[in-house]
Give the backbone structure.
Amino acid sequence: EKMRYEISLELENERIVQDYRRKCMSLLKAITEDYNPNFKEKQYGENKIKDFTFAMNLPFEKVEGSFIKLKNKSIKMYLSIYKMEDSLYFMTAFLNGVGKTFNFGENSTIKVLSIRPVNEKEIRGESVIFNLMSGLVIREHIKEKNRDWYHLVTDEKGIDILKTNLKFSLKDKFKQSDLEAIEIEALNTKKTVVKFYDYKFPITLGNIKVTAKKEILEYFYKSGLGSRASSGFGMCEIID
């Protein structure tokens, strides 16, 4: 049973917008739509929690204005999916897309070269050290001001907000007492600022230690941790 994939892609030229996650989300929608519009509608049609995440591997050279200059045109997407049924659909959609070219915004295109399964690591205990492959987003929505505030996992308030968000978003999947017991600790982390749509906000990169029930750790491993996981943030790799 494979739920994690490495997808090789080729850009039209050796640059990509800084806001590349948004383009990658559009690519996922286009590929699923091309394969099966019903599956695309199931994943994106309603405002539901999406149980998948992705991270991008770019051959970064330098930033040029609103673009990132790359060393070559080859990029990789790592896609991780929680549910077996969804995993099979995504895999088949990408297999169906191999050799095809899709619109990638800014008058450019992207081609799907291949998809291959990646071995998952087994979670044995109730404590894991995760490497944050695509950065952790901790978003606090302040209703009265109708705005978002972003926190880092190195701040106590950041961890509190993250745990509050997890308790709310996972309340239908796990027992409340198990969600209450989640512990998160920053190990060696750093802050970086990313562009997403018209916003710039800080995210946490590096390693964190998460203590929770095994099935909750598996959920984080397979579908990402934190806000905006299905938008290319929060993907985790197990390092211990």
In short: The longest strand covers residues 183-196.
